[in-house]
Fold this sequence. Notes:
By secondary structure, this protein is an alpha/beta fold. The chain has helices at residues 4-18, 23-27, 89-98, 111-124, 161-171, 191-194, 197-201, 210-219, 237-240, 246-253; strands at residues 79-83, 103-108, 129-133, 146-152, 172-186, 223-232, 258-267. The protein has a single domain, classed as Rossmann fold (3-Layer(aba) Sandwich), CATH 3.40.50.150.
Amino acid sequence: xxxxxxxxxxxxxxxxxxxxxxxxxxxxxxxxxxxxxxxxxxxxxxxxxxxxxxxxxxxxxxxxxxxxxxxxxxxxxxxxxxxxxxxxxxxxxxxxxxxxxxxxxxxxxxxxxxxxxxxxxxxxxxxxxxxxxxxxxxxxxxxxxxxxxxxxxxxxxxxxxxxxxxxxxxxxxxxxxxxxxxxxxxxxxxxxxxxxxxxxxxxxxxxxxxxxxxxxxxxxxxxxxxxxxxxxxxxxxxxxxxxxxxxxxxxxxxxxxxxxxxxxxxxxxxx
Length: 271
């Protein structure tokens, strides 16, 4: 896992493996079935979409860590881009708000996920929802096309987060905005946990410090940056004990180290 390309390939492999599993199967293992770490349930990462308009159970693989579309201020007619769209969950929720006059674009780096999302859209008869294959740090999307960008627990998996947010800025219209849910840290995680490849694909070890995360967003040119929601993630001891010493585990439980789900809002200034 020493190069960006190796990290990308590992993430692709793990998410391709779960593309055709059910939500229940993904909930029964680490952050989706992205790590071989027993049957301990780690669905504490995900939040429940079931009450949101436009929710499609077949598109919900329980791989997120927030509800970005709930906070995204989408309006009828908007063009919305979902980064790391998976099986289409957030895209379908976004479409229920943007309506028939809106345009929804999902982008994912895993072909199996794109295929599943397209299949779901076809079943639903949605003509204004499309899914593209591509990387978030090099998007096959025109500049200035999006009114709103959403993403759910994906940016932390991108090795070059600076480029990813620069690309997000590029595809937004002047005056557009994003609402992104992600995993961030407060306090340093032990090296064994940060660099464990399986947990990297499972949302934890790819995260950066919250202050660094917000600084990357500012440096990309965004303004009016706001944390819309923050939630402490409590990882079961049975998982952490595989990578932490007893003292490290006690330190984490004393809240000197924290893993948080955050939903962040930011705007591209109007010209």
